[in-house]
Write a structure and sequence with these properties.
It is built from 11 helices and 24 strands. It is an alpha/beta fold and 415 residues long. The chain has 2 domains: 33 residues; 374 residues, Purple Acid Phosphatase, chain A, domain 2.
């Protein structure tokens, strides 16, 4: 009887020890889970000046918005090189090297360089921009010394994982702007429509509709597949101006509804990009906020609008109120699983300091240097920005919950 009692006590001790071991093992496993990889996606940055000099107070307000392992924007413009004039060309958006340095100070560590203004100053402008971003050690994609370089994925290594970027542009690309086997330029995705190339600057027949040009399409999909093999997450960026078969500027001159939604060819194309291995597709170019789709668990940001918009006041077509409002997206990942997407609304100032020059688009004066800079939107303005975003997302089945001055995508049933 005594021996049975001792065996029972030893059994209880063994069971208790086993339970403690399981609890400890579970605690270690839970505690050893890697912190999430965090990504911040901002609207495009048409930055012309070193805002650290001209708007130093804005830097302190902007930096808290740009937290994360990866902080991304598109630099829309070109950096002036030695001996180059701001007045080169008819529609140029030149910037000083200090503008790129300001982006780095704000927290950006991943830049897309592909857009219709990257070639404003020709080959010299492409090279001066590349020299500037390389000297600042900012990871970038979308332009290069040749087509292979412009198309190649760029890799940002963070403590939480490696993120790849493939960057391209469609529409309003100036002649000679596309990189070739031997010439610097842009990674262009050309689009065919009505039996012709659609550069978004002329009316074309309605049929056949827009389709990516097969050689460009296959080159870009191969870049995505390559990035998938070498990175933990793959971001694909596109700066797009091709909307149906109508000139892009006509859409904005007439404020046509097409400016508010992505064209059908873009929806199909972005799905192909994700099927090839993209985790995130982000776009600019409208330039205003459009909807967001979650496709097979991967987000497509059809347009995040503007983040910095130092547009000369001569361009009156870009003057709708919603062009001066936007959102910043914050994403968190565990591995390749998207855990959360939250949004902060922003508002950009239309009026800079001093007097604008409403006749000379090349005059980079104090007014231009201090306009188009973001600040957090609050109160009623934040509410309308976020509710507008929620409305644009509903056609894609994406549900956004607005709470005060922030919003989030409902990814899971418990959200």
């Amino acid at each position: 009887m005594k021996n049975n009692k001792m065996k029972f006590q030893r059994g209880r001790l063994a069971l208790a020890a086993g339970c403690l071991a399981m609890v400890f093992a579970f605690g270690v496993a839970a505690g050893s889970q890697k912190p999430p990889l965090t990504i911040t996606l901002a609207g495009e940055s048409m930055i012309r000046s070193d805002i650290r000099v001209h708007s130093p107070g804005a830097v302190a307000a902007i930096k808290p918005l740009l937290k994360g392992d990866v902080v991304f924007t598109n630099f829309e413009g070109t950096v002036l090189g030695k001996g180059q004039s701001p007045s080169t060309g008819n529609d140029t958006f030149p910037s000083s090297p200090g503008a790129i340095a300001a982006l780095k100070t704000l927290g950006f560590n991943l830049l897309a360089l592909s857009d219709n203004h990257a070639f404003d100053l020709g080959v010299r402008g492409i090279r001066s921009t590349l020299r500037t971003v390389d000297s600042l050690h900012i990871v970038h994609a979308g332009t290069g010394e040749n087509l292979a370089e412009a198309s190649a994925p760029a890799y940002l290594h963070t403590p939480q994982g490696t993120v790849a970027l493939i960057s391209m542009a469609s529409g309003l690309i100036p002649p000679g702007g596309m990189a070739t086997a031997t010439q610097p330029g842009i990674n262009q995705l050309r689009v065919e429509a009505g039996g012709k190339m659609n550069n978004a600057n002329t009316f074309l027949p309605a049929e056949p509709g827009n389709q990516p040009y097969p050689p460009d399409k296959e080159r870009i999909l191969n870049s995505i597949r390559e990035a998938r093999r070498h990175a933990d997450l793959v971001i694909v960026y596109q700066h797009n101006h091709v909307y149906r078969n109508i000139p892009f500027l006509t859409i904005f001159d007439e404020e046509l509804p097409q400016r508010l939604v992505p064209p059908e060819w873009i929806r199909k194309w972005t799905h192909e990009e994700i099927d090839a291995g993209a985790d995130i597709v982000v776009m600019h170019g409208a330039p205003l906020v459009q909807g967001i789709e979650i496709y097979h668990g991967h987000p497509i940001f059809y347009d995040l609008g503007n983040f910095i918009f130092q547009m000369p006041p001569t361009n009156t077509r870009m003057d709708e109120a919603m062009i001066w409002e936007g959102v910043i997206a914050h994403l968190a990942y565990q591995g390749r699983k998207l855990e959360s997407v939250t949004f902060q609304p922003i508002a950009l100032n239309k009026l800079g300091q001093g007097e604008p020059d409403v006749h000379n688009p090349h005059d980079i004066n104090l007014f231009l240097k201090t306009r188009g800079i973001p600040r957090p939107a609050t109160g009623i303005q934040a509410h309308f920005i976020l509710e507008r975003l929620a409305g644009m997302c509903r056609p894609f089945g994406t549900m956004i919950e607005v709470s005060g001055d922030e919003a989030k995508i409902r990814l899971h049933s418990g959200d």
